[in-house]
Design goal:
- Pfam families: FRG.
- This is FRG domain-containing protein.
- InterPro entries: FRG-dom.
- The chain is built from 18 helices and ten strands.
- With 411 residues, it is α+β, with helices and mostly antiparallel strands.
- Strand 8 and strand 9 form a beta hairpin.
- It starts with a helix and ends with a helix.
């Protein structure tokens, strides 16, 4: 979809969010509409409206490797999974550590979804329209130990492209693993259409056991897609293969969106509500990243200048008055002689650095004061792309002007 078409689509089908207060108001209305229902509201934030709604396994076209991803980690690191009670727990742990799975992350907390929607899209050109989006949906959730969840995750561990994918054989294997009962097995062989529709082609909203801190902090849930493709016309020759699909149908048509230029401000507002990288991600690296970003200065820092105690070459027996800065022509002369050619945007800041220095008693005799003036002036000059004068030149010029004023007063 072209930029103009996407922007038009969002304007027609979405609700633009310009502030956190605006978003909370909209969410409250959403909850009011759903109060009479027993369904669970859930949310998903994505940093770009360009992206489809798919789990990583589908998006990367890696479905052919799913059985390998689901079995190999436990083979190589059995101790890491020894307390896992189900295939679903293994799947969530693999997802937690970055492996492609069929799980799609969602959250109960709309503020968490907004945090993810407001992450900057660094790989998108500034000239291209982009918006973060928050999708919302509602459904009846199932616990992660439910039979339906166990069936889908058990099938995810199987290589259904190898030829051992007949429906009858799959039902038998599910029974052998204790996932379904013998009664289930016999019933579904007779009423196979119910099994196909209700178990193999119905996506689930799963309420997980909070087995890791990140899931807990993010109020996480998962959409577990079935998406199994059925071929054949009788129970004897039905085969099952894995398929991919967009999961947009699991969300409401109306979406919330945040334009790229509003993201940083809303992230600041979320931070005030304690929704940030350090609170959503418990690992130490995320805490340190948050601390670094929150306290980093975006202003240029003056370069180090070593203090040198040297005699000032301009000093003579002329006594400069400590209140020279009060002279009506002092500032005018400084701007005319010392700051000529300097960017207008930083002149006042340079002048302030000069003024702070000359207010010190005997400033022109004190090497430490002069060195401090140079450092402060240099800090201001660094904000200019091409400073035309050095800090030393400006300080030397200031001394000369102060001496000229002293000479004039003595005559």
């Amino acid at each position: 979809m072209e930029d103009e078409d996407r922007e038009e689509y969002l304007s027609e089908n979405g609700i633009e969010v310009n502030s956190l207060a605006d978003y909370i108001k909209q969410i409250n209305e959403l909850y009011s509409d759903k109060e009479a229902e027993a369904q669970q509201l859930y949310f998903r934030g994505q940093q770009s409206d360009v992206w489809d709604i798919q789990p990583v396994l589908f998006r990367e076209n890696n479905l052919i490797n799913e059985h390998f991803f689901m079995s190999e980690p436990k083979v190589r690191r059995p101790e890491a999974f020894q307390n896992m009670q189900s295939d679903f727990e293994i799947m969530t742990k693999c997802q937690h550590y970055g492996l492609s799975t069929r799980l799609l992350d969602v959250t109960r907390n709309p503020l968490v979804a907004m945090y993810f929607a407001c992450q900057p899209c660094d790989n998108i050109d500034d000239s291209i329209f982009n918006a973060g989006v928050i999708y919302s949906g509602s459904n009846y959730s199932v616990p992660d130990q439910s039979k339906d969840v166990q069936i889908i995750t058990a099938l995810s561990k199987q290589d259904l492209s190898s030829g051992e994918n007949k429906l009858i054989s799959i039902l038998d294997r599910l029974y052998e693993r204790g996932i379904i009962t013998q009664s289930d097995c016999e019933t579904w062989k007779q009423e196979y259409e119910k099994f196909i529709i209700n178990k193999l082609q119905t996506n689930l909203l799963v309420s997980p056991t909070y087995s890791n801190e990140r899931l807990l902090r993010q109020n996480g849930m998962f959409i577990l897609p079935a998406c199994f493709v059925i071929s054949g016309d009788t129970i004897d020759n039905f085969t099952i293969t894995k398929g991919t699909a967009s999961l947009k149908q699991e969300f409401n048509e109306t979406i919330f969106f945040v334009k790229e230029n509003n993201k940083s401000q809303i992230l600041k507002e979320l931070d005030r509500c304690d929704i940030n990288e350090s609170t959503l991600f418990p690992e130490l690296e995320h805490l340190l990243s948050y601390l670094h970003e929150s306290r980093s200065s975006h202003m240029l820092t003056p370069s180090f200048e070593k203090y040198e105690r040297v005699a000032n070459p301009f000093l003579t027996n002329i006594q400069i008055a400590d209140d020279v800065y009060k002279n009506s022509t002092f500032k005018i002369r400084i701007f005319d002689k010392c700051l000529n050619g300097i960017d207008a945007s930083i002149k006042e800041e340079v002048w302030k650095a000069i003024l702070d220095g000359v207010k010190t008693r005997d400033w022109y005799k004190r090497g430490q004061t002069l060195s401090g003036m140079r450092v402060n002036i240099k800090g201001a000059l660094n904000k200019s792309d091409k400073p035309t004068k050095t800090a030393k030149e400006i300080v030397d010029c200031t001394i000369l002007i102060a001496q000229d004023i002293a000479k004039e007063k003595s005559q």
